[in-house]
Amino acid sequence: MRVVMFGYQTWGHRTLQALLDSEHTVVLVVTHPRSEHAYEKIWSDSVADLAEEHGVPVLIRERPDDEELFERLKEADADIIVANNWRTWIPPRIFGLPRHGTLNVHDSLLPKYAGFSPLIWALINGESEVGVTAHLMDDELDAGDIVRQEAITVGPTDTATDLFHRTVDLIAPVTIGALGLIASGQTEFTPQDRSKATFFHKRAAEDIRIDWNWPAEDLERLVRAQSAPYPSAFTFHRGKRLEVLSAVVSQNRYGGTPGRVFYREGEGVVIVAGADARTGRNHGLAITRVRTEDGRELPATEYFTSMGGYLTGRP
């Protein structure tokens, strides 16, 4: 098939590479300009550079809403558009233009985790699986019929970085497998159960601020979800920002006020956690490694030279 590709960052780059390696012909690529947004500088392999290396025409757009783009798409005479990590709304006159419409590739197990940063949100929420879905685009965000979907299991120590590397490897088989079904003439695919749909927003600084009223189990997943190269989860100690690089749920249970620097346990320092911590039935979060405001990384047992005091959400 003749394919136009809409995509950005490493997800788009992997999709374009899969298309270039396939039996299909990429006739045009549309991608976003480079961004200084913290999350968009991560996994930032250039779709434009890859297309140009292979002699594929490239258009740079923030939004696909201008007449020049529409005319170029008509001239491309595509059988299908393939989109992955396109960051703005694609209007119906664009996604419905090719003979087979538009195939969107999304890094979640739709209908759950539509929208942005699905791997991070899924890990924070304790999901047992994550994956990649290829679906036909329609008027609603990430809501079209599912053509192909593959999942991986989330392990007990997996970070968002681990899950990224494992799910990005699913892009090629999911995308090319879905195109194969469409090219074969199949037209009936799996409708999404919209009663199970969930939608999530882009990550921002407020989303990585530690709230010590959360249960320790949730905080431990937040720390894993904010693994390098993502910005680390942070708190404040004695008025200065302190990033939590690694942590585990404590073996013992600790009561008191959430945020209290309480006890050395194993290789970590336990912080009281949970809205009902005063009951003494909660596990704490045992922080094992931190980064200080001046950029020093060190074990928590070296940073916390004495017990007592509090970690807080604000200076």
TrEMBL record:
<feature type="domain" description="Formyl transferase N-terminal">
    <location>
        <begin position="1"/>
        <end position="169"/>
    </location>
</feature>
<protein>
    <submittedName>
        <fullName>Methionyl-tRNA formyltransferase</fullName>
    </submittedName>
</protein>
<dbReference type="InterPro" id="IPR011034">
    <property type="entry name" value="Formyl_transferase-like_C_sf"/>
</dbReference>
<dbReference type="InterPro" id="IPR005793">
    <property type="entry name" value="Formyl_trans_C"/>
</dbReference>
<dbReference type="InterPro" id="IPR002376">
    <property type="entry name" value="Formyl_transf_N"/>
</dbReference>
<dbReference type="Pfam" id="PF02911">
    <property type="entry name" value="Formyl_trans_C"/>
</dbReference>
<dbReference type="InterPro" id="IPR036477">
    <property type="entry name" value="Formyl_transf_N_sf"/>
</dbReference>
<dbReference type="Pfam" id="PF00551">
    <property type="entry name" value="Formyl_trans_N"/>
</dbReference>
<feature type="domain" description="Formyl transferase C-terminal">
    <location>
        <begin position="205"/>
        <end position="306"/>
    </location>
</feature>
